[in-house]
Task: structure prediction
Amino acid sequence: MWTHWKGDDVTDVRYRTLTTKLFNQVFSDPYDRQAIAAFLKDPNYGVQFNPELLSATVNSADGYNGLTEGVSAGTSYTLLTLATSSSGAETVCVNSVTTKTSTAAAAWFAAAASTNANYGPTHNTVAGVMKGIDIATVRYAIFKQSALANVSTDNYPAVIEEFGHDLKEEYLPYINGNGFAILFTGESGVTPETTYVFMATATNTVGDKVTKWGSATTSAAPDAARAKAQAATRTDEPLRSPAGKPIANPEKFIYPMESVQLPAGAKPEGDLWTIIHNTHNIK
Result:
């Protein structure tokens, strides 16, 4: 799903993409701008656009072009955006669009890795996030990217089968709802400035099976020098995956759909593109 933001003197942008069905559940009045702004200001729900990029993107002549991945075919989505100018003035934009229906593009399961302060300290916490439709079973694993150097992505299903963990059945309704997350922390062996790959194999209720994966890199530790010294004393570990722990209050979790920046001048072309169809210039 393609997004274009263009503004003038914008100092902060917060956004969130929801299915339109979920949007209508969260907001009884879709025109209540105060409620939408409060939702986006909540760090549990609103995603903050990198303020260091505003000048070169949103406030530039070309604006910002972004791609939201992991969307499903034939589904209506609503993008909520809150822009703030240097004067403190706020603009709320709500745009909805329905993706194209194509069996080739249908995505009934998504899995990714994420580091976010909402999950825990970003230097030693990685979240494995998942969302699906009619999912019956999930088996998952997480590894340091370096440990997978000699493992092709074609072999990820076998690696999950050998080293992974089965997700408890009680968490499947969350995956089939707004999404679910497994947290891996320092207690699980997560270290600073390290890239991790989270992978999961899902089976749906009719027996289809698919494997998805994604990577995320932890930040530097508060005491970076000490952390690096400790890391240097560790020897290489064999390929193994911790079980992690479910996110607290999973009923409040919403699968993160973040916009990925595209090159300036990118255009929404081809069958893989879906454009937000109504434009609201942010000022």
